[in-house]
Design goal:
The complex is a heterodimer. By secondary structure, chain A is an alpha+beta fold. Helices cover about 35% and strands about 25% of the residues of chain A. The two termini of chain A are about 25 Å apart. Chain B is an alpha/beta fold. Chain B has one domain: Transcription Regulator spoIIAA (2-Layer Sandwich), CATH 3.30.750.24. Chain B has four helices and five strands, in the order ββαβαβαβα. In chain B, helix 1 (about 25-40) runs parallel beside helix 2. Classes of the chains: A alpha+beta, B alpha/beta.
Chain lengths: ~160, ~110
Amino acid sequence: MTDADAREYHLVIASRFENIELVHVVIEDALRQAAASDDQRHWIGLALREALANAIKHGNRQDPAKRVDVEARVSPRQIRIRIRDEGAGFVPDAVRDPLSEENRFRADGRGIFYMRRLMDEVEFRFGPEGGTMVTLVKRLDTVQDTDTNQKEEQR
Amino acid sequence: MKIDVRVRGGVQILDVEGKITIGRGDVALREAVQQQLAGGATRLLINLKDVSTIDSSGVGELVSAYTTVTNRGGKLKLVNLPPKVNDILQITQLITVFETFNDEEEAIGSF
C-alpha cells in the first residue's frame, strides 16, 4: 500500500460503550493492513478508545439517540482519526492535571492525558452549534520500515 | 472480562482476565472488590497476568479500589503486571502508588 492508495473509513455509532469495540476492531484491522507494529496498534487503539469514551460519556452523555461520527485515513506513513460528538464541548485548558498531587487519587481525568502521550498530535475543535471534534494523528513505524532498516544494516 | 477469586495464605486473590475498560470491565472490577470487602476481606491481591488492555476508566477503578481498601484499614496490591499495563501506570506516575510484584508467593508473603 502506498500513500496514494491510503484507505479511508467512516463509521457512525450510537452512544453506547459497547460500540467502542466495533470501531476498535475496524481501526485495528486497518492498522494491520498498513503493517503497523504490534506496539503501535495497541497504543493507537487505546488512544482511540479514550477519545470514543469521552465522546460517548462526556460529549453525548450516553444518550443512545446521539451519534458519534468517526472518520479515519490510514496510509503506510500515518493514521489520522477524527471523532465528532453532539455534546456541549469543553475547555481543554481546564482539564485537570492527573500528575498533580491533589489529583493523583482521583478515579477520573486521565483520558485526554493518555491520548496526548500516546499520539503525535491531538487537536480539539468545537462546532459553532456544539459538538466536539477531536483529531488524533500518529506516524507509523511499519513492519516494512523495520524490514528496510534491517536490510540497510546488512549492507 | 472475567474475574475469578481464590484464597491463598489468607489473601483474596482476584484473577482478572481480558479488558479492564469502560462500560463492563471497570464495573466488574468495582463489583468484585466491593463483594470482597462486604465479605470482610482486608487483604486483596489483584492478579493482572491475563489483562490484555486497561484504559483510563480501568486505571481509575484500580485507584478507587486502592483508596477504598486502604481507607478501611486493608491492603490492596498488584501482581503480574503485563508490560503494557505497567507502562500505562507509569505514564500517570501511579506505579509508585501501588505495591507491585512479579511473583505471587512474594506478594502473598508481603501482607
